[in-house]
Amino acid sequence: MTEVHHIFTDGSKIGNRVGAAFVHYANKQEITKSQYRLADHNTVYMAEVFAIHKAIDYILDHELNDVKIVSDSKSALMTVESLSDNREFLWQIKKRLKDREDIKLMWVRAHKGEMGNERADLLAKKASNGDLIDVHFTYSKVQIRNINNKKLTENWQCRWMQSKNGEWTRLIYPEINMTRLSADFYYNQIITGHGIFGAFQNRMFGKDCKCQCGEDETIKHVLMECPV
């Protein structure tokens, strides 16, 4: 009787702890399992891909034939099968799969009662709680960009809150936002405090700063206080 081999893979991230695992079934019987804890900065996606990588290592080391590697991560499977992504780590996986056409990749929907998938999920979660980190990957370009953007945003927010200027604008926008605003002549005057308001005209050109009600014509007064 020909053995039917399925290797289920999964990755997990709980808090900042990342784990990966695979479990080998032959004729629906569990044969072996492997678990790995990844460095905290790694993503679930990276854990998913790494689990596939280790599953292939296992297949080659044990000279298994006609094996199905099963994952619930569409993104990991699509990346492995992509022709455009040539990162070294993924290139190694692709080369091995190309040399072994009897190794097939399969997708399964997560948490739908598939025994192997549920088992791999549990093992990956347990792996994330390991005391020692088994695998260290360098930061990806995307991670480096995200880290730098986060630091820039935090520094910008700090300078914005400590600035002596923009007090009125800060009431409208207490937190900085990377979303581009549409240019609107009147709206820009309101949020910057520059424009036709008497207080600004007085400060810049020496004009009368009084409102019709007799108070200084500031933006705050016009929008929130003036009874006229």
UniProtKB/TrEMBL annotation:
SUPFAM superfamilies hit by this protein: Ribonuclease H-like (SSF53098)
Enzymatic reactions: Endonucleolytic cleavage to 5'-phosphomonoester
GO MF annotation list: metal ion binding; nucleic acid binding; RNA-DNA hybrid ribonuclease activity
Keywords, comma-separated and alphabetical: Endonuclease, Hydrolase, Metal-binding, Nuclease
Annotated signal peptide: none
Domain named RNase H type-1: residues: 1-129
The EC number(s) this enzyme carries: 3.1.26.4
Protein family (similarity comment): Belongs to the RNase H family.
TM annotation in the entry: none
Phylogenetic lineage: Eukaryota, Metazoa, Ecdysozoa, Arthropoda, Chelicerata
Pfam families named among the record's database cross-references: RNase_H (PF00075)
Protein name per its UniProtKB record: ribonuclease H
Record GO biological process: DNA replication, removal of RNA primer
InterPro entries according to UniProt: RNase_H (IPR050092), RNaseH-like_sf (IPR012337), RNaseH_domain (IPR002156), RNaseH_sf (IPR036397)
Top-level taxon of the source organism: Eukaryota
